[in-house]
Design brief:
Blueprint: E1 2-5, H1 13-28, E2 33-36, H2 43-51, E3 54-57, E4 67-70, H3 77-85, E5 89-92, H4 96-110, E6 114-118, H5 124-132, E7 138-140, E8 152-159, H6 165-178, E9 179-184, H7 190-205, E10 208-212, H8 218-229, E11 234-237, H9 245-248, E12 253-258, H10 264-276
Parallel strand pairs: 1-12, 2-3, 2-4, 4-5, 6-7, 6-8, 8-9, 10-11, 10-12
The structure holds iron/sulfur cluster.
Length: 282
């Protein structure tokens, strides 16, 4: 059985940066460190961080220490202002690509554009970007969400970093029908699309695909859906302990990919497990 691991499996740049920030902050801080929401959607990493006294909280009132880490999704600016107003030490691990989307939303609003954010209404990153457009923005999950706008003079568009290009193009196309002037900032981060493309390419040439990542991780779930769409049997698992050897017993090739919040040690554990079952490589 040949084992093929995707080159882009695991942490993206922004998540790696946020995790490193959390580790560094934990080392240099006496008391407990809080993250606003789980730092990433991976239960194994979150529980390792808890062992280092880095604990997720839902609101500022729950803090036990005086240090707060902002995760890579970012938050509305008021949250940072509130935390600083309470005298907390705020470590901002917002991914620079998310920060760019926030800044463009703010700029477009200042320049008088009706701001449209293409993305998922409930996603924390989108709620953060929305707050930077100070009240004038509309979140469009797809082109039909713009029907409420009617004719407008000027529309400015930004994207949730993990939105697909197809969805972004549909919304921008509709904006062009509605407004005389449309200013577009493509703030999509290609880490997700590159990972998805590579996962599908591997899925097409293997007998079984293993997709590693939190069951609560949207990007890992999407990754496993895309692999399954190729017709290859696909299993979404969090750790090697979930692998049923029957899945791979007749496989000539097994592919492995992982979501953006899956650490390398989980990928390495799965490879080791498959090697014990007779797997070779990578
Ligand atoms: S997917 Fe892109 S934008 Fe999102 S955290 Fe990772 S690097 Fe940053």
């Amino acid at each position: 059985m040949e084992i093929i691991v995707a080159e882009k499996a695991g942490f993206c740049f922004g998540v790696k940066r946020a995790i490193q920030t959390a580790y560094d902050t934990a080392h240099e801080t006496e008391g407990e460190v809080a993250t606003l929401g789980p730092l990433i959607h991976n239960p194994q990493v979150v529980s390792r961080l808890k062992e280092m006294k880095v604990r997720p909280v839902e609101g500022l009132d729950e803090l036990r220490g005086d240090t707060l880490i902002i995760r890579s999704h970012g938050v509305p600016k008021e949250v940072i202002d509130d935390a600083e107003g309470r005298g907390l030490r705020v470590i901002n691990a917002t991914c620079p690509f998310v920060k760019k989307a926030q800044n463009y939303a703010s700029l477009l609003q200042e320049e008088g554009y009706r701001v449209v954010i293409v993305g998922d209404k409930r996603h924390p990153e989108v709620r953060g970007i929305l707050a930077y457009a100070v009240g004038s923005a509309l979140v469009a999950e797809d082109a039909k969400d713009l029907d409420v706008l009617g004719k407008v003079a000027r529309i400015g568009v930004v994207a949730q970093t993990t939105t697909t290009l197809e969805r972004f193009q549909r919304v921008v196309g509709r904006c062009l029908e509605l407004a005389g002037e449309v200013k577009v900032f493509n703030t999509i981060c290609d880490a997700t699309s590159i990972r998805q493309q590579e996962a599908q390419e591997i899925a097409r040439k293997v007998d079984v695909m293993l997709v590693l990542g939190g069951k609560n991780s949207g990007n890992t779930t999407r990754l496993s859906e895309l692999c399954r769409e190729t017709g290859t049997p696909t299993h979404h698992i969090e750790t090697a302990a979930e692998i049923d050897p029957i899945w791979v017993s007749a496989a000539g090739k097994v592919g492995i990919t992982a979501g953006a919040s899956t650490p390398q040690w989980i990928i390495a554990d799965v490879v080791t497990f498959l090697r014990r079952l007779g797997g070779e490589g990578p």
